[in-house]
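Q: Here's a chain of 202 amino acids. Please give me its 3D structure as tokens.
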Amino acid sequence: MKLYSAPGACSLAVHIALREFGAKFETIAVDLTTHTTADGSDFRTISPRGYVPLLQLNDATYHTEAASLLQCLADLDPLQSLIGLPGTARRLAVIEWLAFIATELHKVFSPWLWHKDTADSTRQFVKDKLNSRFEELDALLARQDYLAGEYSVADAYAFAILNWVNYLALPLSRYPNLQAYLRRVAERPSVQEAIRTEGLIK
């Protein structure tokens, strides 16, 4: 498999998942400003949307969208331990959290807070909405260690997206349980390997 990714982007979640399952894969860096790969190739020729993650499976097909790729990778594990077996309450909970992260966190952060030309009123609205979500997560994580009870691919996705607060200077001081959660996820060997490989830590 080949993972097309950019350091610290949402593709980090898929990178973490690949390492969780011990998958054999190659990472190919993408410059999201120029939409080129490390060798200068036009990334849009294989990914017309121009964003990451893009995963090339062993059958040479290309697939995108973090939430769907995480489900796909979780199903490669015969025990499906990081998503749950079909028809179980755990699987429903994990998929529910994947959807929540995609719509209520990922697409609230991005693109609004990344663009300098975003209106101040929009920027404030987005920050207020994120804070309401942070408050909800903080309350949940006061009762349990991970989103769906035990660690899952939803936590890999949440970690990748919530980590953006560090780039955007959004304080989490009001949410101690959420802070502890991010530290807990960061301590996993797969996460350490992924963020070190992406140059996010030394």
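Q: Can you summarize the key feature?
A: The longest helix spans residues 120-141.
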